[in-house]
Write a structure and sequence with these properties.
258 residues; Rossmann fold; binds magnesium ion; binds guanosine-5'-triphosphate; 11 helices; globular; 46% helix; alpha/beta; seven-stranded mixed beta sheet; single chain
Length: 258
């Protein structure tokens, strides 16, 4: 077909989310279900170096902050609490778009250690979009109090991504989390998220669509995930492609879908 997508580039896309771009500054996103301790973790990481406003064009609160670790500067973005990234609400769309288009150098998914099962749904969704993901099993003190034992090593092996236990309100596990963030950002640690396999019908459809998407998007977005979203008829993704990428790209995507 010959048409390929051209993004405006990661720095420009980040600025569209009001996230300033400077050399040697890495961007970390905190994702997670509501009430898992994202903001507590955000405060613990950034202290007073914070700035709040609204996400551009939305009435959803955006909190950004920064910290320095081992000589590297990090910008941390506290994403709205969501149960999924299916863009069913403005919060889900904001979180999805930031992970997809601003491409954080690492996304930390904060989960509640006392109800892991429900929380892991979001972890799997983030893993479908990006490889640079860490699972932060927060409220570990609460889990302990309820006599729940979370095997962090096993969780990490099963998901194929780094995992760490924390109690954000006391600072427990934060040094280990910082170390994992630093290793993922520097590329010393490369998460290998395990893919979710769907029914054979769906896998069949994905395998037909994915190469066409790859042809258009190149390495801009995870083509398997885009195929899944398009098969579900997710119009909000097309809208976001329109917003963050050039007109040629959206034309090319529509051609693939035709
Ligand atoms: N025991 C315990 N409480 C915690 C921990 N982390 C956070 N909390 C408490 O859990 C509650 C929710 O924390 P927040 O940081 O507001 O959670 P959040 O994920 O930002 O919530 P939303 O912004 O609504 O999605 C607060 O009362 C925190 O004090 C933890 O590790 N252990
Ligand atoms: Mg919060």
């Amino acid at each position: 077909m010959g048409l390929t997508y051209q993004s405006v580039g990661i720095p420009a896309t980040r600025e569209m989310f009001n996230v300033k771009v400077t050399d040697n500054r890495s961007v970390i996103a905190l994702a997670g279900n509501p009430n898992t301790g994202k903001s507590t973790l955000f405060n613990a990481l950034t202290g007073l170096r914070q700035h709040t406003g609204n996400w551009p064009g939305k009435t959803v609160l955006q909190s950004k902050g920064s910290f320095i670790y081992k000589g590297r500067e990090y910008t941390v973005v506290d994403l709205p609490g969501t149960y999924s990234l299916l863009a069913n609400s403005v919060e889900e769309q904001v979180a999805r778009d930031f992970i997809c288009f601003a491409k954080p150098d690492t996304t930390v998914v904060v989960v509640d250690a006392t109800c892991l099962e429900r929380n892991l749904n979001l972890v799997l969704q983030v893993m479908e979009i990006t490889e640079k993901v860490i699972v932060c099993v927060n409220l570990i003190d609460e889990a302990r109090r309820k006599k729940l034992n979370v095997d962090i090593q096993k969780l990490s092996e099963l998901l194929g991504i780094p995992a760490v236990a924390t109690a954000a309100c006391t600072g427990e596990g934060l040094p280990q989390l910082l170390d994992l963030i630093s290793q993922v950002v520097c590329g010393d640690l490369k998460p290998k998220p395990k893919l979710v396999h769907y029914s054979s019908e769906l896998e069949n459809a994905i395998s037909k669509l994915e190469p066409k998407i790859k042809e258009v998007l190149g390495a801009e977005l995870n083509s398997r995930w885009v195929a899944l979203r398009l098969l579900e008829g997710d119009k909000t993704l097309i809208e976001s492609l329109e917003k963050f990428y050039s007109q040629e790209m959206i034309k090319a995507t529509r051609e693939v879908l035709a």
